[in-house]
Structures are given as structure tokens and as C-alpha cells.
Design a protein that fits this description.
This protein is an alpha+beta fold. The chain is built from 19 helices and 22 strands.
């Protein structure tokens, strides 16, 4: 049992709720507060605390907390297992109730659905959970797929023959599943889930069907949440700002067409080849926009925004990351589409990455040009926000990548590309550092670095413990940038000398084993460093071999 009591937060938030108990909070209000938290992100309910955070204590009828967890479980559906902890604070008794995040929508035993949300002023509130909220939450956990269901009121007349032809052309253009080209309309609809059979044997368009090949007016009337915008802002002036409700394949064509004039490119020579260098890699652009349109929450109002400004390209869509996907595992988690039928159809058409690793494609489109990695840090529970920087490409880095891919005869593994990009930016990495970048374990990070070491792209420094890596001298020499390597590797040698001299000054002496640990060097490197300082007259050796130790040399008498 944890002996440290929970600490009282300073204020309420999405995951923190204060409830006064001076007049004895009713069981109904208590259970509804638990339901609210469970239907959001879970959190903690503090009983006996005022809204402003002042602890005023429990009502006498609530001083015995033993049955409180059972009360909550009995009055919630499905039962919520809370953890109740007594807390004595400010001279009064409080109850800390830890509420887990529900794995499905939770209600009171009386059928009341509530959820915690943040108001426009930034303060939290408990609000009714409406039917579309419940459907959205079910999709969030992957328990239902709205994109596979028929849309109420939709008929086959709402599907556009021109858009169906666009779909077939897209299969050819993007290298999709060519089996689809041999199917008639009805078979194509069935293969892609564009329609679903009704109980009476007739077919009706699904959400996937309307989104892919629906008429624009039908989308306006039957899928009012579908909308996207393309905006261009230059020095705060609006250069382009249009909202549309086109079906998705037409939407992608329209967005690409309107984005091209704002995406200039030039070419550089790499060996015998000329390589285009765009402002934004078009493959990354298409994948990011398609992901936003495919994975958005179609139960929520709000447009998918594609916004280009002086700082970069921002693509956002309503609906946060689905359950199980976080910013810390975007690169490694298994694909978990919110709209599975829609995602599968777009993969078969060839518009999005068929392996489900579209995030890799976005990373590759940024990093191979020496630009910063995609930035998802503004993502929250309501929106996924992706930022792609439009800074100038590092052409020397691009040449390095293209040359290595030419040697391998294939694209660099994404982990290797991330490692090279991180070394370019940070200059020096350990396996532990890289593990965080590639979102994998340390062993995989070390294998990636050692593979690059064997390829001659990185250089290792130090022994196994504390081993660090830098870009190899050849990388800098190939670019004619000898000064950069001198700053990176040479300055490190000067640092090692100062570390050794300072250690000897503070402790009176230093041994080779201590140099290995202090400077993270191999034993031969430590021996050479000590020899260099001895020859320079800065250290004096005492003893031989394993018994040797070194002290600071006496300053020469003037």
C-alpha cells in the first residue's frame, strides 16, 4: 500500500474535479461526477474540497469510506472500479477518488450519460453526452466503424458516376489494386464497402461510399460534418481561403492543384542524377492531407484545415488520436484507423500508404531534405495537428542520403534516416538518445547506429558503456566542411584533456580506468590520452602498467 497520500491539485482541470461535502453531496451527484471523468480521460475526484480548491472536509456521514467504491460500482454501467483514499489535509478529512478512463461509454445505472469537457474560458464542466458524442467515443476505442454503416436517407442516386470514374482513374494513377478495374459498378461497390445490403435486400450507400463517390449536394445534406479548407497566409495577409465539401478523391485533386503554385522546387545534381528539391515534399503532403481526411472524426463538426503560412504547413483535423495511439508511439504502433472501412478503401485505391505506415512516409519526406521532423506537439484530445516546417533544405545532407540510397539500391530504413537527421542536428548521440527519437528500445537504436557505423556514415567514440556516435569525418569531408568536423570531434578531444587535468587536480591523481569512465573512452583511447598529456609535460606517471597512476606536473620555476 502506498504510504504517500495524494497531493491536492491547485485547481480543477479536465482530469481533476472538486466537490464540496459540507451539505453532504448526494449519491446521485457523486456518481454523475465519476461518470463525467470516466467518459473523458479519467482522473481524480476530491470530495470535501470547494470549487476554488479550499479543503473544507467531509460530511460526518462520509467519514467512513469503506463502502464508497462499492456504491460507485453498483450505480454505474458498466461498473467503474474507483480507488478511494482518505486524506487528512488542512486539519480536515478529505476523500481522493481515482477514476479510470472508461473503455466504452459509461452511464449511471439510471441511464444518464455525461462527459467532462473544457469550456471556452478554459474551465472544466460536466455536460450531457449526446448520441453523436457516444458514437464518437465508441469509434475512438475502435468498438464501432461508422464509415461501414449505411447513411440514413441516402440512396444509390446520391452516388455520382463521374466520381466513380475518378475512383477508377485514381487506381491507375496511384498504383492501387488493379483487380478493382475489372469489376462492374455493383461489384466495385461491394469490394470497397461503398454500399451495404439492407434487410430488404436493397443496397444503400455507406458513409465510405458517400465520402468517396457521393454527389456534393448529398454530402452537404447527409454528411454535414464533412468540410475542408485550404488557406494561405503570407505576413498575416490572406492569399487564399476557400472551404469545400467535395468527395475525397476530388478533394485531394483540388488541394494538390491549388497547393502546387505555392510549392516551388529547384533541382540539384547528385552524381549523374538531377534531384528535385520542393518546398514541401509532395508525397508527404498527399499522405498528411489524406490521413487528415480519412482519420477525422465524422461525428464532430469542424473542417479539416490545410494552412500554409510563413513558418510552415499546418494540417489539422477534428478528433484526437484514437485510443492506444500517443505522440510517443506514432512511429511504432500498429495502424488503428478510426474509420476502418474508409481507410481500407483508400488503401486499395492507392491514395494512402497500403502498409498503414503513412507516418513513416511523412517523416521521410521531411528528413531526407534535412528539414526538421514532423511536429505533432499541438495535438490534443479534440484535434490532431501536424506542422511541417518549410525551411530551406540542407542540400549536403540530401546528397548524403541520395548517395547512400544509391549504394544500397533501396530507400534508407526510416530508423537510419531519423538517426542521421538527429546526428546532423544534435552532433552527438548515445543509443539511449536515439531510442527516444525512433520510439524503439535501446537495443534497436544501437543496432541502427552500428549499421550506420559499418556503412561509414557515423563514427563511434568510447567503450560500450557510454558509447557515443557522431557523423563520420567522411561525411564532412565529402561536403568540403572540414571545420565542422574539427568543431565536432576536435573540440571533444580538448574537453577530454581538461576533464582529466581537472580530475587530477581535485583528487590528487588519476588512473587509466578512471579516464575510461570519466571520458567514456576505450582503454586504448584512454592510454593515448594519458600519454599525450605526459609527453606535453602536463602529467607525471608513477608506477607501471596496471599500477600506474598520474599526477599533475609541477609548474616550471621561472
Amino acid at each position: 500500500m502506498n504510504s504517500t497520500p495524494p497531493s491536492l491539485p491547485a485547481r480543477e482541470s479536465l482530469t481533476v474535479e472538486f466537490k464540496s461535502d459540507r451539505k453532504r453531496l448526494s449519491d446521485t451527484d457523486l456518481v454523475e461526477a465519476v461518470v463525467c471523468l470516466a467518459n473523458a480521460e479519467g482522473g481524480e475526484l476530491w470530495l470535501g474540497v470547494e470549487d476554488d480548491g479550499t479543503p473544507t472536509g467531509l460530511h460526518t456521514e462520509h467519514l467512513q469510506l469503506a463502502g464508497l467504491g462499492g456504491l460507485v460500482a453498483a450505480r454505474t454501467s458498466p461498473a467503474v472500479a474507483v480507488t478511494v483514499t482518505p486524506v487528512f489535509l488542512g486539519g480536515v478529512n478529505l476523500a481522493h477518488i481515482a477514476v479510470p478512463k472508461g473503455s466504452a461509454e459509461v452511464s449511471t445505472s439510471g441511464g444518464v450519460y455525461l462527459r467532462r469537457r473544457i469550456k471556452h474560458d478554459g474551465t472544466p464542466e460536466c455536460a450531457p453526452m449526446l448520441p453523436h458524442d457516444r458514437a464518437s467515443r465508441t469509434a475512438h476505442f475502435g468498438l464501432a466503424d461508422a464509415s461501414a454503416l449505411p447513411v440514413a436517407g441516402a440512396t444509390l442516386a446520391d452516388l455520382d458516376p463521374l466520381e466513380r470514374e475518378r475512383l477508377r482513374q485514381s487506381v491507375q494513377q496511384y498504383g492501387g489494386d488493379r483487380v478493382l478495374l475489372d469489376l462492374d459498378d455493383e461489384a466495385l461497390d461491394g469490394a470497397l464497402g461503398l454500399t451495404a445490403r439492407q434487410a430488404n435486400g436493397t443496397r444503400a450507400p455507406t458513409l465510405t461510399g458517400l465520402l468517396l463517390v457521393g454527389r456534393e449536394q448529398a454530402l452537404r445534406d447527409l454528411v454535414p460534418t464533412h468540410e475542408f479548407a485550404f488557406q494561405v497566409l503570407a505576413r498575416e495577409a490572406v492569399g487564399f481561403n476557400e472551404f469545400r465539401r467535395f468527395p475525397l478523391l476530388k478533394a485531394l485533386d483540388w488541394l494538390e492543384t491549388n497547393f502546387r503554385p505555392y510549392n516551388p522546387e529547384h533541382e540539384i545534381q547528385v552524381g549523374l542524377f538531377r534531384v528535385p528539391v520542393p518546398r514541401v515534399d509532395f508525397g508527404a503532403f498527399r499522405e498528411a492531407v489524406a490521413n487528415a481526411l480519412v482519420h477525422r472524426d465524422y461525428h464532430r463538426l469542424g473542417a479539416v484545415h490545410v494552412r500554409l503560412d510563413d513558418e510552415g504547413l499546418t494540417i489539422s483535423n477534428p478528433g484526437g488520436l484514437v485510443d492506444g495511439v500517443t505522440l510517443a508511439n506514432l512511429l511504432t504502433t500498429e495502424p488503428r484507423p478510426r474509420n476502418r472501412a474508409l481507410a481500407d478503401a483508400m488503401k486499395r485505391v492507392g491514395v494512402v500508404e497500403r502498409s498503414g505506415r503513412g507516418v513513416d512516409k511523412i517523416y521521410r519526406g521531411m528528413l531526407r531534405f534535412g528539414r526538421p521532423e514532423p511536429d505533432y506537439r499541438r495535438t490534443d484530445s479534440q484535434n490532431v495537428v501536424l506542422r511541417l516546417a518549410t525551411v530551406d533544405a540542407d542540400e549536403a545532407f540530401l546528397k548524403l542520403v541520395v548517395a547512400e540510397e544509391g549504394r544500397l539500391g533501396t530507400a534508407l530504413p526510416i530508423d537510419s534516416l531519423i538517426a542521421l537527421a538527429a546526428l546532423r542536428e544534435l552532433k552527438r548521440l548515445t543509443s539511449e538518445d536515439l531510442a527516444a527519437h525512433i520510439q524503439r528500445d535501446i537495443a534497436q537504436a544501437k543496432r541502427t547506429l552500428e549499421t550506420l557505423l559499418e556503412a561509414g556514415l557515423v563514427q563511434a567514440h568510447g567503450a560500450t558503456k557510454g558509447r557515443t556516435y557522431t557523423l563520420s569525418p567522411g561525411v564532412y569531408m565529402a561536403d568540403g566542411n572540414k571545420a565542422a568536423y574539427t568543431r565536432q570531434a576536435g573540440f571533444s578531444a580538448l574537453q577530454h584533456e581538461q576533464l582529466v587535468l581537472n580530475y587530477a587536480r581535485q583528487h590528487g591523481s588519476i588512473r587509466r580506468s578512471e579516464v575510461v569512465e570519466l571520458c567514456r573512452l576505450t582503454a586504448p583511447q584512454a592510454r593515448d590520452l594519458l600519454k599525450r598529456l605526459k609527453v606535453a609535460g602536463r602529467l607525471v606517471q608513477h608506477g607501471e602498467r596496471r599500477g600506474a597512476y598520474y599526477t599533475l606536473a609541477e609548474p616550471a620555476q621561472g
